[in-house]
Amino acid sequence: MNQRMLCALAAVTVSAPGCLTGQQARERGASAITEEDFAQRVGVIAHDSMGGRATPSRGLELTAAWIAAELSDMGLRGGAPDGSFVQRYPLRAVAVDAAGSSLRTGSGTGGQTASLSYGPDILPLAPSRASGEVTGQLVLVSGSTDPERALRGAAVRGKHAVLVAPGSEAGVDRTGFSLAIAIRRAGAASVLVTNASDDDRWRATVPAALEPEVETAWGGASVPAEPFRPLLQVRTSSLESLLAGTGVDLAALQRRATGEVRVDAVDGWTLTLTQRLDTRSISAPNVVGIVDGSDPVLRDEYVVFSAHMDHLGIGGPDESGDSIFNGADDDASGTVAVMEVAQAVASLAMAPRRSMIFLLVSGEERGLWGSEYYADNPSVPVDRIVAGLNADMVGRNWPDTIVAIGKEHSDLGATLERVNGAHPEIGMTAIDDLWPEERFYFRSDHHNFARKGVPILFFFNGTHDDYHGLDDEPERIDAEKAARIARLLFHLGVDIANADARPRWHPESYERIVTDRGGAGPR
Ligand SMILES: [Zn+2]
Questions:
Q1: Mean pLDDT of the region 239-265
Q2: Centroid of ligand 1 to alpha carbon of 444 (angstroms)
Q3: Protein residues with C-beta less than 5 angstroms from the ion ligand 1
Q4: Nearest to 336 by CA among 74, 54, 2, 56
Q5: How many Cα atoms occupy the beta-carbon half-sphere of 87 within 13 Å?
């Protein structure tokens, strides 16, 4: 028998030499949560090498693998339904199949045959989930003012409309885009906006334009297919070669850029546009670890700690050339808070009476995907989860307070006040929701537990200038403050896990949030 087991035994009988009392052990667990640890872990998760942890991405996978290894090292057991540390949820990636899509000349083109390809010549102008094939006459639209008049009647209806845009080398601008929308609304079979970018700029546009749209692939919640009305951009140079021999003077049409909109038919020319989609099954990770409870009965009940490890990924560069959304506060800070609590709980000689689940989800920024999947596919029966404590953004703003959202909905509010009052040494006061009008209760992962009937508290320091910005960097995290919040969460979690009775909803809140979801607000 090792010292830890010996002390665990002693804790339920008499004190033994070399063993701490329960209270001492708890204080020691809490004090193991340090500013240095906190800063170091935020530095790993929010490091540039994690690439902003978009769902899905390689950086997210690296983050999940690292967190799983950390939880394992701390002595937790895998808490995914299959007993591992990682629960994967299914996603679908839908992209235009460039190889199977093209724009071709057909009959009535004076014997000419030509074909434009997706990638080198054509790109979607807006994300498209439509596939199909349509043959129609070619018309050229030029000018920019008073489009309603020119687009009336059958001017573009059922036709492939090429919008000869104001010839900017920077690609399609806002005027071009809104004209394209107007042409589509007027019934065009497709709209192709000319893009006069040079080779380098066009090539730089290709990956993002052909990037797949990712959607969830469980629960039958598929995005409905759109009608097949593609909105595309076509390279001006590619269009010139397609139109060779038609007598169309593209340069002259470009010079009409500021004039009245005009529609010119290219007599006898029909084109066939084929667009195919490529749909792939992929997945993304949640990380789950469990510390088993010590009470033979209550260990079948669980307190869940959660935070989201994902963020926004990589975007366009700012003036300094930074393009990575590090998400240090959102939500590396909450993720690390959950990890720190896990470490402190796992270090206790005797585990709390109830079991504890430490859940780091992904897909939060895409629409609470990971927590929705976990709540629908939990590793333990959801009615055995007695409380959810979620941390999303706990590393910035006021040094001595943290907002706790949801206090008014269950007796977790009173428990929090009691725990907070019992630990003045932490120097952290949990205060009421400062922004009820923002309805944050419904806007992060905890809500997926609340709607299943699990009472929750949501710890949140509010937004700031760097929220969802490129400057949400690890250097800006107040790790000293965040470590104190983690200590408060540790004490709160242990108190909930050790209480004789599980937390209870206030009846009117249960009515509003759990029973009558329709009245509760947006999901
Ligand atoms: Zn967040």
A1: 89
A2: 7
A3: 330-331, 392
A4: 74
A5: 29
